[in-house]
């Protein structure tokens, strides 16, 4: 993984000073009734970090990653129009990676065993599109990249959310301050006597002091961060996957639990935590590949484990095997966040337009974005007019 260049350090100092000034201005200005266009980019709640700290890179145009790629079929111009508009209002820069129809992928190009037939063309096309994105990360030798699907949407507060994500991931995978191989989560790199029982939890406002990250805002030794999904398990007390959790309560960007759902039961976040809680943990049994970040090391390992080994399952299941180990794959250092930060946007119109790999019937009466309160896509007209943001998932009993 490439180290940061000196020029980026000086740029980081400038960004940090700007952030501190904006934070001062926001705290001295009268409180707004709602979020307006001038405010929505956010400055983050700076928790004892200094100008020049790598964590400030979450506020840049690629959210702290070296590059953002968006995967999608070129013929889905509707999706490209939408995500270009969202990125413009979010001050994000990205490149498209053209998807491919599954029928255009030759049988000879698909690693498989004699134990199963070729997957359907939808699954094959999706797999190949993501492999093309990973191939580009490796070919360019990028230190890190965020890969999104073209129907992704996010909250206008995405930088604040990712700032908290960075604090959380560092707490889970960075060594404790003053050490090189001792970690707050004793299930991550277990001591010689073995991992402790139970599930270690760390409140985000009382995180252990760790060695500052120097490579990415999210830590120095991760392979994949699953930030957009349709469900994810939190590793339980008996899981071989590291079990540490960073818990953020009273996060107003998280909808009430009645709006939350998951395709990966049990849904621990909804069953065991209060409303407006977000949790960062190690990935287990993720569903959907709406958004994930990779390091250079992680992307190379993904090409080896997912592109060049048996394609017997859809790509999201193959990512599970990559993260947890299974079906001939080694395990890797994968983190996740619940609820996801990047979610599906569903436009008004025929439901058949919702997916390029599955079939949906009926009609979508109004546009929506799953589990996202202040959706960028749903607030485009308000952003154009400088109006307050609209909360599509309001609290049942607002304070």
From TrEMBL:
GO terms for molecular function: transferase activity. Residues 349-368 are annotated as: Disordered. The keyword Plastid does not apply. Residues 66-164 form the Glycosyl transferase family domain. InterPro entries: Collagen_mod_GT25, Glyco_trans_25. It comes from the Eukaryota. Keywords: Glycosyltransferase, Transferase. PANTHER family: GLYCOSYLTRANSFERASE 25 FAMILY MEMBER (PTHR10730:SF53), PROCOLLAGEN-LYSINE,2-OXOGLUTARATE 5-DIOXYGENASE/GLYCOSYLTRANSFERASE 25 FAMILY MEMBER (PTHR10730). Belongs to the glycosyltransferase 25 family. This is Glycosyl transferase family 25 domain-containing protein. It comes from Clonostachys rhizophaga. The lineage of its organism: Eukaryota, Fungi, Dikarya, Ascomycota, Pezizomycotina.
